[in-house]
Amino acid sequence: MGKKLLLDKIQIENLSSYQVYRQNGGYEAVEKALKKLTPDEVLEEVKKSGLRGRGGAGFPTGMKWSFIAKPEGVPRYLLCNADESEPGTFKDRFLMEKNPHLLIEGMILSSYALGCNTAYIYIRGEFMWIMHILEKAIAEAYANGWLGTNILGKGYNLDLYVSPGAGAYICGEETALIESLEGKRGNPRIKPPFPAVKGLWQCPTVVNNVETLAAVVPIINHGGEAYASVGIGRSTGTKLISACGNISKPGVYEIEMGISVEEFIYSDEYCGGIKDGKRIKACVPGGSSVPILPHYLITKTATGTERLMSYESLSEGGFASGSMLGSGGFIVYDEDQCIVRNTWNFTRFYHHESCGQCSPCREGTGWMEKVLHRIEYGHGQMRDIDLLWDVQKKIEGNTICPLGDAAAWPVASAIRHFREEFEWHINEPELCLKQNYGLVKEPAITV
Ligand SMILES: Cc1cc2nc3c(=O)[nH]c(=O)nc-3n(C[C@H](O)[C@H](O)[C@H](O)COP(=O)(O)O)c2cc1C
Asked: How far apart are CA 99 and CA 37, in angstroms?
């Protein structure tokens, strides 16, 4: 089994067309599954593969599927989460644009395993051109008998629809996504009940990320055990990483889980090192929601072991000295970047995107934005750092959905690892402004 499982054919010209996809082994996994495997056997392969959800939380996919309720006469739904709005994350969009049939094939396999006859791709509304690519690919799949009734003459039926997202980051949270798909405002639901029991239209539902569903294709083609032999420990298989920031080669890369972070950042196969020969200052390895790592914790953990691109290694040390693999949005900062400004920028995003249901998130993100803005623009006081710490602590764990945590963690980790930079902004406001913006005068506060 190769070390590239999702992007192995990405260089093939016109791969998004049905003919080219099919000529290159496309839909063979569906043929295998429908002709030779029962739905439970497909589920068993996914369990054996050790695949974990690629949407951020890393929950084992096979286990999640086994939770789906199966009441008699009640439909079940599979929803593909293609909302991808996390700053720094742009891997799903790449996959859907370049290889839409891989996602469709993964959804057919997953729907078959779950006993779903209707599935939806909920795609970020701004990705309208990709929606058209998917719609064309779905029409081709129907025309060639991979979707619709009695697929391959095996008596299995599946309808697949694409639905545009409502233009809010919160609609990527699985229960908000379900609300939005039902035509309502994308407010997260209180859990339990979990979607596996009561999801779309109160029916059993599984929500999976684009990359998770696409990964089911190589799992069925090669077998769950072969998939699990790639990667490291409980981080099996490969992972798509979208790399951006101050690196020489931004882009989407497929890595085998377990390569070193050093290799990922510095080798020419991936990021190609820090742009313009500068030094690295920090990195956010899993999208804007995860804790920032200072330069001395990026390639080595606090205990001196090599930091690897895996769920376990990136979180080693907990929040004191680790971070998370998250959604695989890898953002690199060079020595010239301002951590206070970056933290303010992320917080501005979370304040804007908070659905407003929970007071700690609605109010807290606003306060954090305000305090960070005044520190960044030279109006901060020393007590503001403690105030920020206090506000983020009051948000974390106190909201219906994890958007609150996602807003709190970047602030907490920035203070934890870069406190002196906050203090510098407060002690030397003019120097800071000059250095960051070339400003001689302070701008007016606009928040
Ligand atoms: C605010 C917020 C936004 C999210 N956005 C996405 C997203 O765009 N795509 C995604 O797959 N998961 C997103 N998630 C995670 C989903 O709630 C869910 O865990 C995921 O789709 C499950 O798929 P997986 O098990 O395949 O990872 C988001 C979560 C939160 C709290």
From this structure: 25
Which alpha helices (H) appear in 273-428, and where do they start and end? 311-315, 318-321, 339-353, 359-376, 382-395, 403-427
Rounded CA separation 282/292 (Å): 7
| Mean pLDDT of the residues in the chain | 96
Q: Supply 378's token pair.
A: 């030279």
Ligand 1 pocket member 287 (CB < 6 A): no
For 424-445, the pLDDT digits (tens) are 999 998 888 887 776 655 555 5
Ligand 1 contact, 376 CB (< 6 A): no
Question: Ligand 1: does its nearest atom lie under 6 Å from the Cβ of 165?
Answer: no
Task: State how beta strands 238-245 and 329-334 pair.
Answer: parallel
Tens-place pLDDT, residues 369-417: 999 999 999 999 999 999 999 999 999 999 999 999 999 999 999 999 9
Q: Where are the alpha helices (DSSP H) in 246-338?
A: 261-266, 311-315, 318-321
Domains of the chain: 18-229 (3.40.50.11540), 232-334 (3.10.20.600), 339-437 (1.20.1440.230)
The confidence score (pLDDT) of residue 432 equals: 84
Q: Whose CA is nearest to atom 2 of ligand 1?
A: 173
- Our mutation pick for probing the ligand 1 site, out of 207, 240, 325, counting the most ligand atoms within 8 A of Cβ, is 207
Q: CA 213 to CA 109: how far, in whole Å?
A: 9
Assign 3-class secondary structure to 193-240.
CCCCCCCHHHCCEEEEEHHHHHHHHHHHHHCHHHHHCCEECCEECEEE
pTM score of the predicted model: 0.96
What is the maximum alpha-carbon separation in the chain? 74
Torsion, Cα of 271, 273, 3, 123 (10° steps): -20
